[in-house]
Design brief:
By secondary structure, the protein is mainly α. It is built from 14 helices and two strands, in the order H-H-E-E-H-H-H-H-H-H-H-H-H-H-H-H. The protein has two domains: about 70 residues; about 230 residues, MetI-like fold (Orthogonal Bundle), CATH 1.10.3720. The protein has a two-stranded antiparallel ribbon with strand order 1-2.
Length: about 325
């Protein structure tokens, strides 16, 4: 309908009607831009909100992790000894000194054993626990709570508990072995032989971190469709064949994560070694050796250098394990 016709029908002045129609059309043309500006302003304010919420956490992580790492990387190249100042730049002198230290070389060898025992025990036992808890059963929640309990305990507390178990005078381990007539008298297990000492301490470490591996594996098991097991059962596959051909390949990403978690924890083991082995070289790890070099010998430069090497080794080995083991799962 044209403007004159609308004016005749409504009885308004044609000029006034024309101006109102023109004003309304301009308002309609401007309203989308105005809405866009309003939306843009709201989006800008909403877009900044996540960064404001995350900022305290970033500052906290930076203060507790990034800054000490950068400081360690810098001071690893300096001679820092509070008893004989001043601080002096030594280049790679700290690194050559720690590699010529027999105690450090022994701790590197011991840490390799800790990694071997820790990864095998953690991944194997964690996978077994995850498979046992895969299907619902009466009391499953209670069993799961008991399984998770060691993970909630501090490493020092676990070391003290297991020191009672390994005690050569009244320890549970000696008592059980003697009652089974496997040993004739109570024996000292920790500190006597290298591999035996490392295995017993690694067992304590595995007892702590296995619950996390079990939870990771259990979460992956819940994502496997039941139709795959049903089809395999119809085809006559045995339970072990179903585990080997269906379960293990499909939880490979979870196994890779659990392996990396066990590797990192085993490479950086300290609490259990400090409580059970003290400063004996028989079961010393890289972290315990770093502690004694830094705070007992007060050689902070070499302590920083050894910490830096441990950090770099942890990153490189973890990335290598992820590249080697991790595979994307396709259920099709």
């Amino acid at each position: 309908m044209s403007t004159p016709e609308r004016a005749v029908i409504t009885g308004d002045d044609p000029a006034v009607a024309a101006r109102s129609v023109s004003t309304s059309s301009r308002a309609r043309r401007r309203s989308p831009r105005r809405r866009d500006r309003v939306r843009g302003g709201r989006a800008g304010s909403d877009g900044a909100l996540p960064y404001l919420l995350v900022a305290p956490l970033v500052v906290f992580i930076g203060a507790l992790a990034i800054y000490p790492t950068v400081l360690t990387a810098v001071e690893a190249f300096f001679r820092i000894d509070p008893l004989t100042p001043p601080t002096a730049f030594t280049g790679f002198g700290n690194f050559s000194a720690i590699f010529s230290n027999n105690q450090v070389r022994q701790s590197i060898e011991n840490t390799g054993w800790y990694i071997l025992f820790g990864v095998i025990l953690t991944v194997a036992i964690g996978t077994a626990i995850g498979l046992l808890l895969q299907r619902p059963f009466r009391g499953r929640g209670i069993v799961l709570a008991i399984v998770v309990l060691p993970w909630a305990l501090p490493g020092v507390v676990e070391g003290v508990i297991w020191s009672w178990i390994y005690n050569p005078t009244f320890g549970v381990l000696d008592s059980v072995l003697k009652s089974l007539h496997l040993i004739g008298s109570y024996q000292l297990f920790i500190g006597t032989h290298q591999v035996e000492t490392i295995f017993l301490i690694a067992l304590v470490q595995a007892w702590q971190i296995t619950p996390l591996a079990a939870l990771i594996v259990l979460a992956a098991l819940q994502t496997i469709p039941d139709e795959l097991y049903e089809s395999a059962a119809v085809d006559g596959a045995s339970p072990w064949r179903r585990v080997r051909s269906i379960t293990l390949p499909l939880i490979r990403p979870a196994l890779a994560i659990a392996t990396v978690e066990a590797l990192v924890m085993s490479l950086n083991i300290f609490d259990q070694v400090y409580v059970l082995n003290a400063n004996a070289t028989t079961g010393a790890s890289i972290m315990s050796t770093t502690y004694f070099i830094t705070f007992q010998d007060l050689n902070f430069g070499q302590g920083y250098a050894l910490s830096l090497l441990a950090t770099v080794a942890t990153v490189l080995i973890s990335v290598g394990v992820v590249k080697l083991l991790y595979r994307k799962v396709d259920y099709q």
